[in-house]
Design brief:
The protein has about 850 residues and is of the alpha+beta class. The protein is about 50% helix and about 10% strand. The chain is built from 35 helices and 13 strands. Helix 18 runs parallel beside helix 21 and helix 30 runs antiparallel to helix 31.
Length: about 850
C-alpha cells in the first residue's frame, strides 16, 4: 500500500525532506507503492494514485507507467475521474505515442456526452494532443459540434477545428461553412475562436481567401459595435471594450483586404474610426492603434488613411515606452518606401531617437534616417548623421561612414559639398572607412581640378592636427603627394587669410607620420610614394630632394619586403634625370567606374571654389548660373512643432511652420503639409523659387554654418562707403498680462518674396515663464522658425525668436499666432491673427 493516503499527504511529506537525496528516496518509494497498487486493480485508490503520480511527474520524476490508468479513469462514468484522467493524458501522452490510438474512442464517446463539461474535457484534450490520424477520425465530430447550441462547446470546437486543419490541411474545406456561421455569433469567446480559425484557413489557399471576402461587412459591423459600445464591465480592459477581439478582427481584415480594392474600400471608414476614437494613453489602446496601422498599410487603403497611419507611428515615437518607440521605428522602416513624404514629416522625431539611451532604438532610427535622405534634405540629414558620428559607438561607425559617403555621392548638390562631407567623415571616424569610399573620394578630387587646391589645403591642416585616423592619413598622403605643387604655390587659405607652405614643412609633416605609433604597413607604403612624387615637383628645392633621397636610401634595407622594394625602385629613379620627372608627373584622372550608387558625383556642379571653412548645412554653392536647384540652401525645419491640426484644429486655411524647403516647388512641399489636413494642394498658391545663384557666406568664429534665417550678404567685399541704413519698424502683435510681443520685418530688394521677421518678447510686470510661441501662415506661403533664445523673460530683458516667411511677390503677410505662457502663477494660452505689416512687404520695397 502507498505510504501516503492522498496527494495532500504526499506533498507534505516531500516538503518535509531535509535533502535532495531524501526527496528522491521518498519519490522512488512512493512510485513503487503506486505501481503495486495499480497491479492490484484497486479502483478506489486509482484516483488518488494518479493524482500523486501527476505531482511526481511535475517534479521531473518518471511517471509513464500511469498512462493506462489514466485511460481507465477516462472510461469512468464519474466526472471527477474523467477530469483527472484527461489531465493525465494531456500531461503523460503526446501525439507520437502509440497509446494515443486507445484514447480516440473515449474522446468520441465523450464528445457526444449529455454533460457539456464532459464534452468540454474531451475537446480540450483533443485540441492539445490530437495527431494527424486522430484528426481525420474525429473531424466529423468536431464539425458537428461547431453547430452546437451551447456557446461553451462551440468555442472549444472551433479551437479543435483549428488543430485539425493544422494537422490535415486538405480537409479544411469541411469547416468553411460552419466557420462563416460562427462569425455571426454574439458571444465574444466564440467570435475570437472563430476568427482565429478563419485566419488559419485563409492562410492555406487563395481560394479559401476569396470564400471569406464576402464576410468583410460582417467583420466591419462587429468592429464598429466594439468601438461605439459603451462601458461593458464583462469585456472592459482599461476603458476599451474587448481589445483582444478588436486585434483579432483587425488582423483578419488585413488578410482579407490585401490586394482586394473592394474589400479594402469597405474597411476604410471603420479603420479611420478606430484610429480616431481609440485612446492611445495606455498600452491597450496602443496595441489596437498598432494593429490598425499595420492593417491600413497592408490593404489597398486610400492615401489619406495611409498618412493617418504613419502619423500614428510618428506619435508612437514620442512615447516614453521603449518598446512602443522600437515598434514604430521598425514599422516605419518597412513603409518608408511606400509613402516617403508622410514619413518625412516625422524626420525631427526620428533624428531625436538617435540620441536615445537604448542601442536597439538608435540602430533602427539610424536605418530609417538613411532611407529618408533625398535631394531636398541631404544637407540637413547628413549634418545630423555627422553629429551622431561624433558620439556613436564603434559598432555603428563603419556603417555610418559608408552610408554618409554613399548618400553624399548620390545626392550631393555640388562637388564642393561632397568633398567637405567626406573630409568631415575622415576627421571624425577615419579608422572606420571602407577602402571603396576612400578610392571614390580620391577619384572625385582627381576629376575636380577646380577644388584640388582647396582639398589639399584642408587635408594638410587636418593631418597636421590629427594623424591617428588611418583613412584620413591615407587620403591626405595621396592628395599631398599628387598635388603638392598646387599647395606650395597657392598656400593655405583659411579665414580669408593666405598662409604660405614651404616644401620643408610639407615633408616634415609626412616624415612625422613615419614615426607615428599609428603608422602601419599600408600608410608607410603611401608615404614613400608621396615623398617620391613630391621630389619630382618643380616647387621642391634641391636640398629637400636630397633629403627625400636619403629617406629612400634608408628604407632600401627595410625588413618589410614591400617597403624595401618600393624604396629600391624609387631610389633608382633619382639616377634617371629628366625621365624621373616624366615618370612621377601627376596621374591622369582615373577612369570613371560605377559604384554602388552609380557614377554621379563627377557630373555634379563644382560649387564654390573659395577656400573657406566647410559648411555642411550648405551655402557654399556655385555662383554660376548653371547651379542646380539642389544647390540652394535648405530650410532648417522647426523641431518643436507637431501636427498643425493639434494646434489650431482642422483648419485647412493655414500652412505650418514645419514646411519643407521653399526652394523646391516642383516637389510639392506645400502638398506635403496639406496632407496633414487631408486637403488637396491643387488650389494652393505658387511658391516663389529662390534664385539658383546665391552668394557664399564667410564662416564666423562662432560657427561655420551661416544661418538660413540671415539675409544674404555680398559674396565679395564692397568698396568702403557709408551704407544707407533703413530704420526697421516694430509692430505690436500681442500685449496682455504683462507680456508684450513685437514683430520687426526685414526685407531685401535682391530677394523679393522673402521676409525675415524678428519677434521680441518683453515683460512689463513680473517674470513670464514657459513661453510657447507657435505660428502659421496661409497655405500659399511658407514659414520656418528658429528656437526662441529663452522661454523665460525677466523684467528688463528682451528675448527673441527669428522667423522666415516665403510668400508670392506682392502678397500680404498674415500670421496666426498661438502664445502660451505662465505669469503671476497663472497659465495663459491665447490665439491672435496678425495682419499689421504694410502692403508691398513681399516686394522688398516696404
Amino acid at each position: 500500500m502507498p505510504t501516503y493516503y492522498n496527494l495532500k499527504a504526499l506533498i507534505k511529506g516531500i516538503r518535509g525532506c531535509k535533502t535532495v537525496a531524501d526527496e528522491r528516496a521518498l519519490i522512488q518509494q512512493e512510485s513503487a507503492a503506486i505501481r503495486a497498487s495499480f497491479r492490484e486493480e484497486d479502483t478506489f485508490q486509482r484516483h488518488n494514485n494518479v493524482a500523486k503520480l501527476l505531482y511526481i511527474h511535475m517534479l521531473g520524476s518518471p511517471a509513464h507507467f500511469g498512462q493506462i490508468e489514466c485511460l481507465k479513469l477516462v472510461a469512468s462514468p464519474l466526472f471527477t475521474d474523467k477530469r483527472l484522467g484527461y489531465l493525465g493524458i494531456m500531461l503523460l501522452l503526446d501525439e507520437n505515442q502509440e497509446v494515443l490510438t486507445l484514447v480516440t474512442n473515449s474522446l468520441k464517446n465523450d464528445m457526444n456526452h449529455s454533460n457539456m463539461y464532459a464534452v468540454g474535457l474531451a475537446l480540450c484534450t483533443f485540441a492539445n494532443i490530437a495527431s494527424e490520424e486522430m484528426s481525420r477520425d474525429l473531424a466529423n465530430e468536431i464539425e458537428k459540434l461547431l453547430g452546437s447550441s451551447n456557446t461553451y462547446i462551440r468555442k472549444k470546437a472551433a479551437l479543435c477545428a483549428l488543430r485539425v486543419i493544422k494537422k490535415v490541411p486538405d480537409i479544411a474545406d469541411h469547416f468553411i461553412g460552419k466557420a462563416k456561421n460562427l462569425l455571426t455569433d454574439r458571444n465574444h469567446g466564440v467570435l475570437i475562436a472563430a476568427i482565429t480559425l478563419v485566419t488559419e484557413i485563409c492562410s492555406l489557399e487563395e481560394s479559401y481567401l476569396n470564400e471569406f471576402r464576402s464576410a468583410v461587412p460582417l467583420l466591419v459591423r462587429n468592429l464598429k459595435s466594439l468601438v461605439t459600445t459603451g462601458y461593458s464591465p464583462e469585456h472592459d480592459v482599461s476603458g476599451i471594450t474587448d481589445p483582444f477581439l478588436q486585434v483579432k478582427i483587425l488582423r483578419l481584415m488585413r488578410i482579407l483586404g490585401k490586394g482586394d480594392e473592394q474589400a479594402s474600400e469597405a474597411m476604410n471608414d471603420i479603420l479611420a474610426q478606430v484610429a480616431t476614437n481609440t485612446d492611445g494613453s495606455k498600452n491597450v489602446g496602443n496595441s489596437i492603434l498598432y494593429e490598425t496601422v499595420l492593417t491600413v498599410l497592408d490593404i489597398e487603403a486610400d492615401t489619406g488613411l495611409r498618412v493617418m497611419a504613419i502619423n500614428i507611428l510618428g506619435k508612437f515615437l514620442s512615447n516614453r515606452d521603449n518598446n512602443i518607440r522600437y515598434v514604430a521605428l521598425n514599422t516605419l522602416n518597412k513603409v518608408v518606401t511606400m509613402d516617403t513624404n508622410a514619413v518625412q514629416r516625422h524626420r525631427n522625431t526620428i533624428l531625436d531617437c538617435l540620441r536615445d539611451g537604448d542601442i536597439s532604438i538608435r540602430r533602427r532610427a539610424l536605418e530609417l534616417s538613411y532611407a529618408l535622405i533625398n535631394e531636398q534634405n541631404v544637407r540637413i540629414l547628413i549634418r545630423e548623421l555627422l553629429a551622431f558620428l561624433e558620439v556613436a559607438d564603434d559598432e555603428f561607425k563603419l556603417g555610418l561612414t559608408t552610408q554618409i559617403s554613399l548618400a553624399a555621392e548620390r545626392f550631393a548638390p555640388n562637388k564642393r559639398w561632397h568633398i567637405d562631407t567626406v573630409l568631415r567623415v575622415l576627421k571624425l571616424a577615419g579608422n572606420f572607412v571602407r577602402e571603396e569610399i576612400l578610392s571614390a573620394f580620391i577619384r572625385l578630387v582627381a576629376h575636380t581640378p577646380e577644388l584640388q587646391a582647396y582639398t589639399a589645403s584642408k587635408l594638410y591642416l587636418a593631418l597636421r592636427s590629427d594623424i591617428s585616423q588611418e583613412s584620413l592619413t591615407l587620403a591626405a598622403t595621396w592628395i599631398l603627394g599628387e598635388y603638392s605643387d598646387i599647395l606650395i604655390e597657392g598656400g593655405i587659405v583659411d579665414d580669408d587669410k593666405t598662409t604660405p607652405v614651404r616644401d620643408s614643412e610639407l615633408i616634415d609633416l609626412l616624415l612625422s607620420c613615419f614615426d607615428s605609433p599609428y603608422s602601419n604597413y599600408l600608410i608607410r607604403q603611401f608615404l614613400l610614394a608621396a615623398l617620391t612624387k613630391i621630389s619630382a615637383r618643380s616647387t621642391t628645392s634641391q636640398p629637400e630632394q636630397d633629403r627625400i633621397a636619403e629617406v629612400l636610401a634608408k628604407y632600401t634595407t627595410s625588413p618589410e619586403l614591400e617597403l624595401q622594394q618600393r624604396a629600391v625602385e624609387f631610389a633608382s629613379l633619382f639616377t634617371l634625370g629628366e625621365t624621373r620627372v616624366g615618370v612621377l608627373e601627376q596621374m591622369p584622372a582615373p577612369e570613371l567606374k560605377a559604384t554602388v550608387m552609380g557614377v554621379v558625383s563627377e557630373r555634379k556642379p563644382v560649387g564654390s571654389t573659395k577656400a573657406m571653412d566647410a559648411d555642411l548645412l550648405g551655402d557654399e554653392i556655385s555662383n554660376a548660373p548653371s547651379a542646380s536647384v539642389g544647390s540652394q540652401p535648405p530650410v532648417n525645419p522647426q523641431s518643436n512643432q507637431d501636427l498643425l491640426a493639434e494646434i489650431f484644429g482642422s483648419s485647412s486655411e493655414l500652412a505650418t511652420s514645419t514646411s519643407p524647403p521653399a526652394a523646391q516647388p516642383q516637389k510639392s512641399s506645400v502638398d506635403d503639409i496639406l496632407g496633414l489636413f487631408g486637403s488637396s494642394s491643387s488650389n494652393s498658391g505658387p511658391v516663389p523659387q529662390t534664385p539658383s545663384a546665391l552668394p557664399s557666406y564667410p564662416a564666423t568664429p562662432a560657427t561655420a554654418v551661416p544661418s538660413t534665417f540671415a539675409l544674404p550678404q555680398s559674396a565679395t567685399p564692397a568698396t568702403p562707403a557709408t551704407p544707407s541704413v533703413r530704420k526697421l519698424t516694430e509692430y505690436s502683435a500681442y500685449e496682455k498680462n504683462g507680456l508684450r510681443v513685437t514683430l520687426t520685418p526685414q526685407t531685401s530688394a535682391a530677394k523679393p518674396g522673402i521676409v525675415m521677421i524678428l519677434a521680441r518678447f518683453q515683460t512689463t510686470g513680473p517674470p513670464v515663464t514657459g513661453i510657447s510661441f507657435q505660428a502659421a501662415v496661409p497655405k500659399s506661403q511658407q514659414l520656418q522658425m528658429l528656437p526662441m533664445s529663452n522661454p523665460n523673460v525677466n523684467p528688463g530683458a528682451t528675448e527673441t525668436q527669428q522667423m522666415r516667411v516665403v510668400a508670392p511677390v506682392g502678397s500680404n503677410v498674415r500670421l496666426r499666432l498661438r502664445i502660451g505662457y505662465t505669469a503671476d502663477g497663472q497659465t495663459h494660452q491665447e490665439q491672435v491673427d496678425f495682419a499689421g505689416f504694410p502692403a508691398g512687404l513681399t516686394s522688398g520695397t516696404a
